[in-house]
C-alpha cells in the first residue's frame, strides 16, 4: 500500500480522511460524509452552482477551467438525459494523487459526483478509473454497493425526489483516454480517439446527451466546498485559484509523496521544506512542475507560487500538480528522450501532426542520446515541436511539444 | 441460464456479463470492461473470447478487434502467469526504474515482452502506472509493489514463485 506522508504546512481539505478507514461508509459518515449532499439537496441546483463559482475551484486535471462555470454551461431545458463523468484515468507521468483519493476516500468521489449530478440535472454518473487501478476499482465498487444499501444512491434520495445512479467503469490502458472527448469514446466502448469540438460535451456528450466531465480531484473537492461554503474555500488559495491542491512530489527529494497545500504555495519551499530537499547533498538541476507535459523549470526559476496563473507567467503550467524533481546528475537529454518516448507511445495516431511529430521527435532525440546529434537536429526538433502546437484535435500534441520546447529553451548547449 | 448458451466463461463471469450489458444506456459501453474481465479469466482475448463478446454486445468481431488493438492492457496472446510490469517513466527512471528493468531481465532470464519457458513470468516495460511518489514501482498482474530495490524485487518474485508452487 502506498505510504501516506504528512507535513505541518499542509491544509487538509480533500485528504483529511485519508488513513482513517473512510472507504467504509460508516466511517465516512462518522467523519461528516454525505452531509454536503444533504445540504446540496436542500438548497437546490442553483445554490450549488453559485457556491461552486464562488469557490474559485478550477479543474484539477490540468486545464484549470472554472468548475462552477463548466457546470453552468449545461443547458437546462433539454429533453436528453444528462450525465456526470468522473475522469479517473490518471496517467500523466508524475501524477498519483487520484490513486490516493480512490484508495482512502472513494465516498468523497461518489458524493461529489452526486452533487454535480444534482447541479446539472443528471440522473446518472460514471466513475472511470484506469484499468491498472483494479484494486481501487474494487474499493470503489464496494463503496457504491454500500451507498446503494443505505439508500444514499438510487431513488428519492433523502426523500427529496432526487434520483441518482453511479456506475464505476474500468479502462484498459491508454493515456489518451484522459482527454475528455476520448474518455467519452472509451466509455462508449470504442477506441479512445478524440472528438472534434464543437459541440462541447456540456451540450453533446455521452450518448449524445449533455455531459459534465471532471477530474477525480475536482470531484473530491466538491463536498468540502459545499460544506464550508464557496467563499471560505476560495480564501484558502490565491486570487482566481481557490482552495488546495494535491501536489505529488516525486523524483530526487528526501520525502516524496502527495501533500495537500494551498494553491499558490511556493515551489522552492515545497521542495526544500515540505519534501525535505534533495538527497545526498546534491544540488537541484531542474523541476517539471505539473506532470510530464509541463515545460521544465531550471533551479534558478523555482521561487514561484504554484497556481495556474503564476505558473503560466513563469512560462510553464500547473498541470496535474505532479512535481518531478531532478538533481544535478540527471542528463536532460535522457530525460527528454524518456518524455517524448512516452508521448510517441501514447499518441492515438488519429491526427498527423501528433502521430508524425512525436515519432520524429523521438527518432531525432534517440540519435542525440546515442551521441550522433548535431546542432541542426535541435533546430529541426524545435521547429517540429513548435509546429505541432495547436494543430491537433486534442491537447496530446501540445502535451508532447510543450515540454520538448522547454528542454530546448532551457538546456540547449550547442 | 446465461444470455449466451455454451458460453466459454465461468457461470459467475457469464452472469456478470449478462448484467453488465444492461447497465449502461448502450450495450457497447460494456465492451472494454468485458474484454478485460474475460482476459483475466481466460488468459488472453483470444478468438473464442472475441467471438462471444461480439455476440453478447451485438457488434462485429472486427469492431472488437479494433478496440483491442488500441488498449495496452489487452492482449490476444497469453502472458506468463505473473506479468511483471516495470515502470521506467520519468519519476521511476529518476529512482532506478531502468536498473529495475535490467535486474528483472537478468533474474528472469528473459527480455522485454518475453515469457519464461515455464510460463510462470513475463516481463514488460510499461508507461506510468500512477505510483510516482513511491518509485520505483512495479505491477505484477494488478498488484502494486512500491519503493523497490533489487533485493526487494527478488523477494517479490520469490513470493509469486512460492504462490505458484503452493497450488
Q: Can you tell me about this structure?
A:
The complex is a heterodimer of chains A (about 425) and B (about 170). Chain A is an alpha/beta fold and about 425 residues long. Chain A has three domains: about 25-235, Rossmann fold, CATH 3.40.50.11540; about 245-325, Ubiquitin-like (UB roll), CATH 3.10.20; about 330-410, NADH-ubiquinone oxidoreductase 51kDa subunit, iron-sulphur binding domain (de novo design (two linked rop proteins), Up-down Bundle). Chain A has helices at about 25-30, 35-45, 45-55, 65-70, 95-105, 105-120, 135-150, 180-185, 215-220, 220-230, 230-235, 265-275, 310-315, 330-345, 350-370, 375-390, 395-410, and strands at about 85-90, 125-130, 155, 160-170, 210-215, 245-250, 255-260, 265, 285-290, 295-300, 305, 320-325. In chain A, helix 2 (about 35-45) crosses helix 10 (about 220-230). Chain B contains seven helices and five strands. Chain B has helices spanning about 10-25, 30-40, 45-55, 60-70, 90-95, 95-110, 150-165, and strands spanning about 80-85, 115, 120-125, 140, 145. In chain B, helix 1 (about 10-25) runs antiparallel to helix 2, helix 2 (about 30-40) runs antiparallel to helix 3 (about 45-55) and helix 3 packs across helix 4. Chain B is elongated and about 50 Å long. Chains A and B meet through strand 4, strand 6, strand 12 and helix 14 of A and helix 2 and helix 5 of B.
Amino acid at each position: 500500500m502506498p505510504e501516506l506522508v504528512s507535513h505541518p504546512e499542509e491544509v487538509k481539505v480533500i485528504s483529511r480522511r485519508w488513513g482513517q478507514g473512510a472507504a467504509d461508509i460508516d466511517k465516512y459518515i462518522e467523519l461528516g460524509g454525505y452531509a454536503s449532499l444533504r445540504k446540496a439537496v436542500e438548497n437546490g441546483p442553483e445554490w450549488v452552482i453559485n457556491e461552486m463559482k464562488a469557490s474559485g475551484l478550477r479543474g484539477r486535471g490540468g486545464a484549470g477551467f472554472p468548475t462552477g462555470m463548466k457546470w453552468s454551461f449545461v443547458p437546462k431545458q433539454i429533453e436528453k438525459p444528462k450525465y456526470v463523468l468522473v475522469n479517473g484515468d490518471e496517467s500523466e507521468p508524475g501524477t498519483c494523487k487520484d490513486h490516493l483519493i480512490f484508495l482512502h476516500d472513494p465516498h468523497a468521489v461518489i458524493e461529489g459526483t452526486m452533487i454535480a449530478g444534482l447541479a446539472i440535472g443528471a440522473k446518472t454518473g460514471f466513475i472511470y478509473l484506469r484499468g491498472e487501478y483494479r484494486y481501487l476499482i474494487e474499493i470503489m465498487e464496494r463503496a457504491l454497493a454500500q451507498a446503494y444499501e443505505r439508500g444514499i444512491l438510487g431513488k428519492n434520495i433523502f426523500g427529496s425526489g432526487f434520483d441518482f445512479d453511479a456506475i464505476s467503469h474500468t479502462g484498459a490502458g491508454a493515456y489518451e483516454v484522459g482527454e475528455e472527448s476520448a474518455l467519452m469514446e472509451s466509455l462508449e466502448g470504442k477506441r479512445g480517439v478524440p472528438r472534434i469540438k464543437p459541440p462541447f460535451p456540456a451540450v453533446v456528450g455521452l450518448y449524445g446527451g449533455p455531459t459534465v466531465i471532471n477530474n477525480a480531484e475536482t470531484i473530491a473537492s466538491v463536498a468540502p466546498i459545499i460544506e464550508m461554503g464557496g467563499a471560505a474555500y476560495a480564501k484558502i488559495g490565491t486570487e482566481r485559484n481557490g482552495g488546495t491542491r494535491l501536489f505529488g512530489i516525486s523524483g530526487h527529494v528526501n520525502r516524496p509523496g502527495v501533500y495537500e497545500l494551498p494553491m499558490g504555495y511556493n515551489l522552492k519551499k515545497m521542495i526544500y521544506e515540505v519534501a525535505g530537499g534533495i538527497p545526498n547533498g546534491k544540488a537541484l538541476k531542474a523541476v517539471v512542475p505539473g506532470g510530464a507535459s509541463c515545460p521544465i523549470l531550471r533551479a534558478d526559476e523555482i521561487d514561484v507560487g504554484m497556481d495556474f496563473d503564476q505558473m503560466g507567467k513563469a512560462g510553464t503550467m500547473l498541470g496535474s500538480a505532479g512535481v518531478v524533481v531532478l538533481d544535478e546528475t540527471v542528463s536532460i537529454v535522457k530525460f527528454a528522450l524518456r518524455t517524448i518516448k512516452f508521448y510517441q507511445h501514447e499518441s492515438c495516431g488519429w491526427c498527423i501532426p501528433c502521430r508524425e511529430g512525436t515519432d520524429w521527435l523521438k527518432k531525432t532525440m534517440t540519435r542525440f542520446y546515442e551521441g550522433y546529434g548535431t546542432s541542426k537536429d535541435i533546430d529541426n526538433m524545435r521547429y517540429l515541436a513548435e509546429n505541432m502546437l495547436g494543430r491537433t484535435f486534442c491537447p496530446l500534441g501540445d502535451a508532447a511539444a510543450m515540454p520538448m520546447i522547454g528542454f530546448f529553451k532551457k538546456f540547449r548547449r550547442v | 441460464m446465461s444470455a449466451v448458451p455454451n458460453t466459454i466463461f465461468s457461470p459467475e463471469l457469464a452472469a456478470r456479463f449478462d448484467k453488465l450489458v444492461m447497465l449502461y444506456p448502450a450495450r457497447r459501453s460494456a465492451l472494454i470492461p468485458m474484454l478485460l474481465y474475460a482476459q483475466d479469466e481466460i488468459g488472453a482475448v483470444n478468438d473464442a473470447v472475441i467471438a462471444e463478446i461480439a455476440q453478447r454486445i451485438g457488434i462485429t468481431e472486427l469492431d472488437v478487434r479494433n478496440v483491442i488493438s488500441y488498449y495496452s492492457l489487452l492482449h490476444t496472446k497469453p502472458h506468463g502467469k505473473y506479468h511483471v510490469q516495470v515502470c521506467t517513466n520519468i519519476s521511476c527512471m529518476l529512482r532506478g526504474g531502468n536498473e529495475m528493468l535490467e535486474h528483472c531481465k537478468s533474474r528472469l532470464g528473459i527480455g522485454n515482452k518475453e515469457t519464461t519457458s515455464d510460463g510462470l513470468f513475463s516481463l514488460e516495460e510499461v508507461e506510468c502506472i500512477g505510483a510516482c511518489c513511491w518509485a520505483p514501482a512495479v505491477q505484477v498482474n494488478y498488484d502494486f509493489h512500491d519503493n523497490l530495490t533489487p533485493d526487494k524485487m527478488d523477494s517479490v518474485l520469490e513470493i509469486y514463485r512460492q504462490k505458484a508452487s503452493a497450488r
